[in-house]
């Protein structure tokens, strides 16, 4: 049931991209290299990571954690909030770490996206997904929770919002929906500024704006940035396989 939300969101956003003339025009100019990066990223994030969570990470917790499986009894509302709010805060700091000088070389590929495009949501080098907290924290709570229904709904909603904020389906600033969502939810407009060419050191949040506002990294502007993406001289194999394929210092653009 929870996966239906993610799949339906992806299909709706793909449909919008195809039927929205500016988005369709940009999609037609996508390079072969970008198609490969985006396809591999979606495959890794959408298929490989869920399999690893259940087949590997969950089993590691099962064998090595001193706590018994299903020992945490919480109501559905509490487990939903645990996923949608608390894990969101952990992701905020996880994302900031990926922008640090220690991990930027692994994350920079995500910022080569030059147009907000739902297909580029999971663009990254192959190893970046192992550094994203979702792989480890979701399996951890699925192991501990006696009933994970509310938690999984939160996970699915977070994933759906991730697809949406990487798309061009922005809400008009004059609409009532924008006035309702804008004070608290990260919108496509907000995330576009995270991908702006001049700086990505803002709007790190996934679901909620409060974390950026609390830590001074929030930037508010309803107008889109002049340009998106960072320049890079990395080859396709470097973008996919770093650090197996080394990157020189001059290749790394922060």
From TrEMBL:
One of its GO terms (molecular function) is iron ion binding. It is found in: Endomembrane system. Residues 80-217 form the Fatty acid hydroxylase domain. Keywords: Lipid metabolism, Membrane, Oxidoreductase, Transmembrane, Transmembrane helix. The chain crosses the membrane at residues 35-61, 73-92, 126-145. It is a multi-pass membrane protein. One of its GO terms (biological process) is membrane lipid metabolic process. Its main location: membrane. It holds the Pfam family FA_hydroxylase. GO terms for cellular component: endomembrane system; membrane. The keyword Nucleus does not apply. InterPro entries: Fatty_acid_hydroxylase, Sterol_desaturase/TMEM195. This is Sterol desaturase.
